[in-house]
Amino acid sequence: MPLIPESLHFSEFWLLVGLSFFTSFLTAAIGIGGGSILLAVMAQAIPAGAVIPVHGIVQLGSNVGRAAVLHQSVDRALLGWFVAGSLVGALIGGRIVVTLPVDALRLMLGAFILYSAWGPKFGALARSKKALAMGGLLTTTLTMFVGATGPFVMSMLRAFPLRPVALVATMASCVAAQHLLKVLVFGLLGFAFGPYVPLMALMVGLGFLGTLAGRHILLRVDPKKFTLVLNIVLTLLAVRLIGQALL
Is the pLDDT of residue 98 over 70? Predict the structure, then answer.
């Protein structure tokens, strides 16, 4: 098995491997952002039909590593409700929302994320376990078509009173479950992961090192500064989604 897939240049291969360290570091430090950046770059280098499944494997490995490192801070009750909804979302496979144009989905996601960052705080309904389960169902379905729905998941989890470490840990666990379901679906559909195994293995390995580095910042961050930085990053990701839809 060749180290570098035929569809990738030497420089592109090692750029993606190095970028996996930086994006995992970013996500471990502030909880979000790395997956969306990585997806944007991978879309420029990897054939379109392989971007989402390969990105899914890399993000699965990255989030499993992050959840393992921060496992003591995971809110298992919230995780359980999110996974319950995600299982249903994987089963229905997007038969309902796939009828909407992808750009319409991006607009709705972007608007929701902007509201979660700067609008009035969500009420008790948004902080209910049932709402989180519905969010798991929706985002697991959407991720098959939109790609990285991490900002949407983060926006839902922020409605709950979690400290920064618990928020990042629970977020990683939820997204890991989501990517696992997505990868299983692509596997059942017959996607050939083989040519990308060396790339994915190196990206997961460097990503774990990035997680270890970012964890040190997360454990020392002031909650108020964490919230401000998170809002800024969420805003940038939301603007990117809206820009993709409009352009």
Answer: no
